[in-house]
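Hi there, hope your week has been kind to you so far. Thanks so much in advance, here it is:
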Amino acid sequence: MARIYLVLGSFAVSLLIANFGVGIWVGDLNGVADRMQHEAQQYKVARGNGEQGAIDDARESMLAASADLTPIKKRHGIHFLLGVLSALVCVLVNGIAMTYFIGSSKWCSEVVDTYSLDLSYLRKSRTLKRRAYPWTISGVAAIVAIVAFGAASDPATQIESSASWVTPHMIVAIVGTMWLIVSFLNQAGLIGAHYDVINEIVAAVEVRRAEIGQADAEQIESLGETTSLEIDE
């Protein structure tokens, strides 16, 4: 299970790193978008003045800005979609860890109670679960922070200071990705440790079943001897 989780975590981190590269590839979206907005405003003013020469110049400037903006917007669209996919995968991987610990811890509790096993198994299981939850929650918080700063830096949100959020978004993306790497590694280690506890419980159950089977056999043998004596009498 730990190996599978490491593969899932590696895939999630790979998506984040790939999307970081796409974000760099996008270019100066805010700068070109501001230029496009400025040229559109100038064209509107020129049309209001009614000077044909000024209108033609303003139109050419606006079309040039639009031509520069179009490929950047396409690259930004890829960055946005890949970001959504990365966020969903990261949340899913963290959710898998939480679901695993909830389900497996409940199983441990039921088996320990059913076979009256040593309560130390249950304590180990619960301790590992408590240690895993902070990593799971902080991992989700990291991806939420990356997405939030990315939204703030998007000029489509109509935030006047969106350009000033680009650098913070980049920093949060780097720090958040590094934190997710640490989080996934720790969760994988805890999942592996919990799997070992499960194996210990399974081994203890086999021993207990053997003891119960032996006790039943002795009881049956004793009952048979008693029955034979009664028949002889």
